[in-house]
């Protein structure tokens, strides 16, 4: 394994492998969003919400018990996301997709939609998107009526309470995106894991699926994770620093400068 820390000096061999890759899959986690100011789920709540445990609000049971409370909590989280902007890590992944001749799939555990706002096209949102609303009866994405000021708003079609389009504790991940994510992991020849702890399953299994299929595995994280010792390259640093440098080194005109030499 090539271990790169400090100022993230990129190995020439990694740049060559990225440039020659025919198919790339990327998995991102909360560390990427945190660089945009989006609080991670594990961080303490603030203000009105500091007395609530997020693990007790993000469940179907909590919504059945008090839908107004849960909807208001998610409205507060939506406001945080709306104020956030894509960071250089998001932008670098969008640029990587634009420049890559072969296949590219971006798999994210984040629900903020920042990857799409940065310009990424082929995005699999394993945990949903907090900015969307879902009718749990019709199982379709629905935008609340502008005239509906009730909390939570109702589905214009069937009248059921809408809910955030996110995966709650105790719920299965959406089968379609999950199956596509595993296909992408098995079919790629280079897999990048960025800003994720490697602890949340089933997403944590994706890098190992890629490894079993012979892919080169790259991890980008400030700290060691359960994945680190299995990675071919471990870049120690923030995604917002490492990803732009990696993409610039691969597609930029001045490779020496982008490699920090």
From TrEMBL:
The EC number(s) this enzyme carries: 2.3.1.286
UniProt: Zn(2+) binding residues: 135, 155
Major localisation: cytoplasm
Catalytic activity: N(6)-acetyl-L-lysyl-[protein] + NAD(+) + H2O = 2''-O-acetyl-ADP-D-ribose + nicotinamide + L-lysyl-[protein]; N(6)-succinyl-L-lysyl-[protein] + NAD(+) + H2O = 2''-O-succinyl-ADP-D-ribose + nicotinamide + L-lysyl-[protein]
Binding note for cofactor: Binds 1 zinc ion per subunit.
Domain Deacetylase sirtuin-type: start-end pairs: 1-254
Entry binding sites for NAD(+): 109-112, 195-197, 221-223, 239
Catalytic residue positions: 127 (proton acceptor)
Coiled-coil regions listed in the entry: none
Localization annotation: Cytoplasm
Alphabetical list of InterPro entries matching this protein: DHS-like_NAD/FAD-binding_dom, NAD-dep_sirtuin_deacylases, Sirtuin, Sirtuin_cat_small_dom_sf, Sirtuin_class_III, Ssirtuin_cat_dom
Cofactor(s) needed: Zn(2+)
Pfam family, any one: SIR2
GO MF term (any one): histone deacetylase activity, NAD-dependent
Binding site for substrate: 74, 77
Source domain of life: Bacteria
Recorded domain comment: 2 residues (Tyr-74 and Arg-77) present in a large hydrophobic pocket are probably involved in substrate specificity. They are important for desuccinylation activity, but dispensable for deacetylation activity.
PANTHER family: NAD-DEPENDENT PROTEIN DEACYLASE SIRTUIN-5, MITOCHONDRIAL-RELATED
Free-text function comment from the UniProt entry: NAD-dependent lysine deacetylase and desuccinylase that specifically removes acetyl and succinyl groups on target proteins. Modulates the activities of several proteins which are inactive in their acylated form.
Protein name: NAD-dependent protein deacylase
Species name: uncultured Rubrobacteraceae bacterium
Gene name of the encoded protein: cobB
């Amino acid at each position: 394994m090539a271990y790169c820390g400090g100022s993230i000096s990129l190995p020439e061999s990694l740049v060559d492998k990225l440039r020659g890759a025919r198919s790339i899959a990327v998995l991102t986690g909360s560390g990427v969003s945190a660089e945009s100011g989006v609080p991670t789920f594990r961080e303490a709540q603030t203000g009105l919400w500091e007395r609530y445990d997020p693990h007790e609000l993000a469940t179907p049971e909590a919504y059945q018990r008090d839908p107004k409370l849960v909807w208001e909590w998610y409205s507060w989280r939506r406001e945080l996301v709306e104020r956030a902007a894509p960071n250089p890590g998001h932008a670098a992944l969008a640029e990587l997709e634009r420049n890559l001749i072969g296949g590219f799939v971006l798999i994210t555990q984040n629900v903020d939609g920042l990857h799409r706002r940065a310009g990424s096209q082929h995005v699999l949102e394993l945990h949903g998107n907090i900015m969307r609303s879902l009718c749990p009866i019709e199982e379709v994405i629905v935008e609340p009526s502008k005239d509906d000021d009730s909390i939570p708003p109702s589905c214009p079609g069937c009248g059921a309470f809408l809910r955030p389009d996110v995966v709650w504790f105790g719920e299965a991940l959406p089968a379609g995106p999950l199956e596509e994510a595993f296909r992408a992991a098995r079919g790629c020849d280079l897999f990048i894991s960025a800003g994720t702890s490697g602890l949340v399953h089933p997403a944590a299994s994706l890098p190992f699926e890629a490894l079993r299929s012979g892919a080169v595995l790259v991890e980008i994280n400030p700290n060691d994770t359960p994945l680190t010792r299995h990675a071919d390259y471990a870049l120690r640093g923030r995604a917002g620093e490492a990803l732009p440098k990696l993409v610039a080194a691969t597609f930029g005109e001045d490779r020496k400068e982008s490699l920090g030499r």
